[in-house]
Design goal:
two-stranded antiparallel ribbon, ATP binding, Heat Shock Protein 90, single chain, nucleotide-binding, transmembrane helix, Sig_transdc_His_kin_sub3_dim/P, about 65% helix, 3 domains, alpha+beta, protein dimerization activity
């Protein structure tokens, strides 16, 4: 099977073919294209940073406060820098989002101009300002350190050709002869792949900082409204489901039971050789079949065993009728919300059904526990494993049902087994 191509630099850096792939060249292009941008920003920051550092040193070394002109310059310059930073950071951020595509194929949408006032009010604007200062203040230091390492290694590699009797080469210590330079050259050649990985690591760190700072922030208010909307929809769905269950259980089911009973009594009163005997028998059998179907429909909406026995008892009832040996461990003291009970029941039912149909297992275990205010449901088996939600709708539907209850489903099913389905359901009432 062809291995999946990495989509970003951090993923490519962990692969064995890093040095022979195109990723080192992409990382180098990213680093080189950073130099002019970071250089311009560094010069702008030095206009304020250098006098500020000189003033701090004067106070520290001589105990003298800076003069009034320098103080005014630093104050006005700092305020001007902070005032212009949210505006300057916008085009820089746009260029950085575009450049990030050199080393990261994951989409990072461009941010539209939100308005001048929004640049000073929003967290996204100040995150871009923070990235501006990082790019102009910290990145150049890292680049200088890396450049010194590269120059040192190049000096080691080329030292046999640079050394002469009249002009020794200094690498760690003076080298006066070619024989002395050869070991340094060998070490320098061996360090070239290390520099390749170091360049990739430097580009990876810068790309990670850029992605963190330039990604659109999550709209917390919108997320809360979506969560509230989903809660309302789930609540309305549960209420409607209970109404349908009640109408079927208290209305249609008793009337169908009465009809079945009347047809049975009528069969007793009609002679077997009567022309009406056979149609009456067929109608009676159909009514009984319809009653069984209706009972199954009601059970599918909310199992009666949940109401009568609670979640632990209903799960044990499922274990009793399973086609494999099932052990149930339940430690769920306290009352559970109805939607949590119903979801947990159907999780166990579907999971045990999958064990019977697909796993080839001889036994299964079901655990119901409370952990940190959540109900945790775990179903494990000793089957062949290899469960994949992409190959069927059972696990996908199960995950959708769990998500509707604001929970999450975790699946571990390596080839050869075992398989573990873990569901965490919040029990907030």
């Amino acid at each position: 099977m062809t291995p999946q191509r990495p989509s970003h630099l951090a993923e490519a850096l962990r692969r064995r073919d890093w040095l022979v792939s195109a990723w080192p060249w992409r990382a180098l292009a990213y680093l080189v294209s950073t130099v002019p941008i970071a250089g311009v920003l560094a010069v702008g920051l030095l206009v304020i940073g250098a006098p500020l550092l000189a003033a701090v040193n004067a106070v520290r070394l001589h105990g003298r406060p800076p003069g009034i002109p320098l103080t005014l310059f630093l104050a006005v310059g700092s305020l001007t820098l902070l005032a212009l930073a949210p505006i300057v950071s916008f085009p820089v951020a746009a260029v950085e989002r575009w450049r990030l595509g050199l080393v990261d194929g994951r989409p990072l949408p461009a941010s539209p101009w939100p308005g001048l006032a929004a640049r000073y009010r929003t967290a996204a604007g100040w995150r871009e300002v923070a990235y501006l200062f990082w790019l102009g203040g910290i990145a150049p230091v890292a680049y200088w350190v890396f450049l010194l390492l590269v120059l040192l290694d190049l000096g080691m590699v080329t030292s046999p050709w640079l050394v002469s009797d009249a002009d020794p080469v200094v690498v760690w210590q003076p080298i006066e002869t070619t024989g002395e330079a050869v070991p340094y050259a060998v070490v320098g050649v061996l360090l070239l792949p290390v520099l390749g990985y170091a360049a990739g690591l430097l580009a990876t760190v810068q790309a990670a900082v850029a992605r963190w700072a330039l990604a659109w922030p999550v709209d917390a208010a919108a997320l809360r409204e979506v969560a509230r909307s989903r809660t309302r929809l789930v609540g309305a769905y549960e209420a409607e489901r209970r109404r349908i269950e009640r109408d079927l259980h208290d209305g249609a089911q008793p009337r169908l039971t009465s009809l079945t009973l009347q047809l049975g009594l009528a069969r007793l009163d009609v002679p077997e050789d009567s022309p009406a005997s056979r149609p009456l028998a067929v109608a009676h059998d159909q009514a009984r079949g319809l009653m069984v179907m209706l009972r199954q429909l009601v059970h599918g909406i909310r199992p009666q065993s949940l109401t009568d026995l609670g979640l632990a008892g209903a799960v044990r009832e499922l274990a009793d009728v399973a086609t494999v040996a099932v052990t149930v461990h339940a430690d769920i003291d306290g009352e559970l919300p109805e939607i949590v009970e119903t979801t947990a029941y159907f999780v166990v039912s579907e999971a045990l059904g999958n064990v019977a149909r697909h796993a080839g297992a001889t036994r299964a275990d079901v655990r119901l526990t409370r952990a940190g205010g959540d109900l945790v449901v775990e179903v494990s088996d000793d089957g062949r494993g290899g469960a994949d939600p992409a190959r069927g709708t059972g696990l996908t539907g199960l995950a959708d049902r769990v998500a509707a209850a604001d929970g999450r489903l975790l699946l571990s099913s390596p080839p050869g087994g075992p398989t573990l389905v873990r569901v965490e359901l919040p029990c907030r009432r």
